[in-house]
Design brief:
Elements lengths: L2 E8 L4 H13 L6 H22 L7 E9 L2 E8 L7 H4 L17 H7 L2 E7 L3 E9 L9
Antiparallel strand pairs: 1-2, 2-3, 3-5, 4-5
Protein name: Anti-sigma F factor
Enzyme class: transferase
Family: Belongs to the anti-sigma-factor family.
């Protein structure tokens, strides 16, 4: 059976931690390893931070939307904003590329998200914002003794 969670919040930096914990709590029913849970939380953090800082230019009036679904041991997370979008997704995926060099940012985290998830998809439009979707298998990864 599929289980779905929807969450929306203002584009405030302090809400990034809330998003991490909410998605991790939702995923906990799959009994993930600590490493898998940390990787999931990091991917959520990177996507939400991008929406806040790059999508909305840290304007708290913006809204970040998260949908997470669990089905058959896998979590599917979608982080969406209605901000200014990404002009060049390939460039944004480069490890040290940032649209905010004055903030001493070390990139937009897509490489990290890609490394920590099983699937990463990015869709963006300068007129409607950005959608970051990733999937991660969390169940049945551990060796079980019988």
């Amino acid at each position: 059976m599929q289980n779905v969670m929807n969450l929306s919040f203002n584009a405030l930096g302090e809400n990034e931690a809330f998003a991490r914990v909410a998605v991790a709590s939702f995923a906990a029913k799959l009994n993930p390893t600590m490493d898998d849970l940390a990787e999931l939380k990091t991917a959520v953090s990177e996507a939400v931070t991008n929406a806040i800082i790059h999508g909305y230019d840290s304007n708290p009036a913006g809204i970040v939307y998260i949908t997470a679904s669990i089905d058959d041991g896998e979590i599917d997370v979608v982080v969406r904003d209605e901000g200014k979008g990404i002009h060049n997704i390939d460039q944004a995926k480069e490890p040290l590329f940032t649209t905010k060099p004055e903030m001493e940012r070390a990139g937009m985290g897509f490489t990290i998200m890609e490394h920590f998830t099983d699937l990463l998809e990015i869709e963006s439009s300068t007129s409607s914002g950005t959608v970051v979707r990733f999937k991660k298998r969390l169940a049945d990864k551990r060796v079980r003794c019988v």
